[in-house]
User: Fold these one by one.
Assistant:
Number 1:
Amino acid sequence: MNRLNPLHIIVLLVVVILFLYMQLSEIKADLKEELLAYKKSEKIAKELSAYKKFYGDQKRVQRSLQRIFSQHSLRNLKIETDYSNDGVKIQIKSIDLYALNSFMSKIFNGPYAIKKLNIKRVDETHASLELELKW
């Protein structure tokens, strides 16, 4: 019967240890990549959550719209607002161009998610406005 050479066993163990070390290093590299991807997706999720809080706060949007509607140039207008669970629809049948410019600058500069905007010219100095904001 042939005896096993201890040198062969040592070489086999070294080869197995090298193989396991290579596998471990590949797994570590994959883990680092997955950790970076997780941190990136976590950052995006936090940003989306912040945007949702900022744009989706129904009470804040209603209060800011009431402040805009209470401006001197918009007080005398007949403004129809329809609040729903999805957002608010604003209709103004006749608005002068100065008040329209003031109103639109407040809307565009504010944190509103505009779903629909329709402005039609009624005559030289007046227009009609249909605006839909969502939250």
Note: The chain has a mean pLDDT of 88.
Number 2:
Amino acid sequence: MPDAPAMRPYVGWAGDRSSGTVLVFARESRAAKPVVYGLLMSRAHVEYADVRVGRCPPHQVGRLMQYVRPRMAASGLAHGSDLVPTCSQCQDWASPIAADGTCSACSAAAQEAA
């Protein structure tokens, strides 16, 4: 039997992606979707059919893997992480956060406005 795939970071959302996303670690998207649903339901009412899951971009995987829970990953259990720093402006975690607490998009918008 082949080895099980390693844990991967997934981004999950419901409806409009700009209304909030969650970070989930799972071996496959089918395992990530129920976890995303549970995390989103804790914030607001969402329908399971509206939940979407996508793999995080390859260039962000290294940065995001530091937020995986080692015991859950070792057991192969899909899980979410609320430890990821978010932008103080837009609450997004998908981009690296600068020392001022903002993501690159919000930093660029602030510089253009100035």
Note: The longest strand covers residues 8-14.
Number 3:
Amino acid sequence: MIKFNNFENGGIKELKSYLNQFYFDKSTSYKTRILGIILICFGIISFYKSFFIDIRFGITLILIGGFMIFLISEKSTPISIDFKITLFLTSWVLIMYFLTGRLKFEIYIISIFLGILIIKELSDEFITKTLKKRITILILIFLAIYILFILEKIISFVPI
């Protein structure tokens, strides 16, 4: 509990320092996790009464929010490697969103999968073990989605 001694002279300074400490001295991971949760919420909301472009937009927001929550650790700073990898993956998702706008949805997801594979391969010797595990989990999730796409194509070609 903060006590304000002599509000006219030093109380305003105390209040300003308290607000600065509360709002602006949080770690980078705290801010990015809040932003990630907000993006995921907006992505889920965009699914409501959605059509094809809203679904792609919603998935883009959910992916970016998920990257922010999942990849940035507690000790992240804007110059740390996990922050840079998250920034690269976010940029990649946005670029693929705009480049694959009129193409099939599967191409969009597979291009994101390829971007995650590329970033894992290029940064493998620079990242920590926990970040390697997190990126490997992302690769496995997207590999499962890719396998589902392949199975759906195989099933659609088999005559009944």
Note: Helices lie at 7-24, 28-46, 52-71, 81-99, 105-122, 129-157.
Number 4:
Amino acid sequence: MVEPTPNPQPGPPMAGMPPGAQQPPPEEKKGGLFGKKEPEQIGPDINQAMMEVGAIGRRLRILEERYNNLRKKSQVTDQHLLNHTKKTVSDFKDTNEDIMEVKRSIEDIKEKMILIIKELKITAKKEEIQVLQKYIQFWEPVNFITRNEVEKMIEDAFEARHYDEK
């Protein structure tokens, strides 16, 4: 069943309006900045207010939990960042020590190379060796006789002569 809509503002129609036409709403009184409000606007339903306060409390608890979770995540992230930073600094120090050791090794190698080069400059050249080789072949030192051999030969000869005379 359809209920007839009540006329929001009952009363006689205004002058100049056709019968059955609705009247325009009356002008609201403006009380200024501190004007009185009607009693209907002052106190909303208490149950409605309790429900709204409960909903606000639930939302506040949810927001607090989210804030605590974010704070915990932030602390964990900060701790991981600190650990990673410490590890990175330690690795950096180790790398620097390795680099310094390599530099010292390179300096030692350079010093030894310079020493080898100096020694090689002092050694005889190929042409000098060839000249010495020609002299040695010319003299034939392999055919030289030693002092001991000469003394033995003299003794043998002396004994042979002394033996022959007898």
Note: The two ends are 181 Å apart (CA to CA).
